[in-house]
Write a structure and sequence with these properties.
about 325 residues; alpha/beta; TIM Barrel; four-stranded antiparallel β-sheet; globular; binds succinic acid; Aldolase_TIM; pyrimidine biosynthesis; oxidoreductase; flavoprotein
Amino acid sequence: MLQSKISLKANIGKYEFNNVMLNAAGIRCATTDELTKVLNSEAGGCVTKSATPEPREGNESPRMKATPLGCINSMGLPNHGLDYYLKFAEENQGKDGKQVLLSIAGLTVDQNLEMLHKIQESSFNGLVELNLSCPNIKGESQIAYDFEAVRDILTKTFKFFTKDLGIKLPPYFDLHQFDQIADVLNDFPIAYVNSINSIGNGLIVNPETESVVIKPKGGFGGLGGDYVKPTALANVRALRLRLKPEIAIIGTGGIKSGRDVFEHVLCGANVVQIGTAFGFEDVKIFSRISKELSEIMAEKGYSSLDDFRGKLKTL
Ligand code: SIN
């Protein structure tokens, strides 16, 4: 297969992506300069930093630490507030064929509903990503581990929200959890799920200083990078096997090469997001991985992602 004949295009419902890769919310996407840089790269679009109704400073520093296998963070949702990201999204969605995914993460159900009302009333006409999985807010649980709370917020949301909504999920670890979250999500007109957020409340220890490596929450924080890829693949696969076909999947977790994207798509991802490795490498990662993925597809004789999406074999 000639590499020039290979397409890395993808879609979520009616939204078309020229490239299957996006940044993950939180990484190099907090300012309009950073977001514009992603839009001007080979990525298929950008995701905005998860917004709260008002600007937030986030947790105290140091709140992120890179390690040879990835990173740990407890950022605590530092962001410029919904109005800032909504304006950017309204101005840039669909421009030059690029998608802008608007991510929101209220600290309470009411905050989420307030932001969804504002988005409903706005001129933004792209995908909204409701983040129910931030592990770094002191004193708050990750909503998506409480299945009835997810049902409750979605019931309230779809009473008024008519735009296209995705849900950012945390990793699940038990097969019953996959069944339970899928049972809830399948009852709603959701456009996609994004699986996974970081593995919450990990701990990295520095044996030399005999200390934790980040300050908030006594050192506990979300893990990303190599630590999380098998868990991410398992979540994409398990959800693809359980969710109704109209719900697309964004695969996020441990992607740093063409092979990693290939594996996520094989497990069922429609689109992928890159977090930790994008943080390390910046926008050139999208062209490097596009080339690596195209080479793998050429070797295997695949011309589009549809040729192998979800076709993981079992033994
Ligand atoms: C953070 O700002 O703490 C990270 C956001 C997230 O994990 O959802």
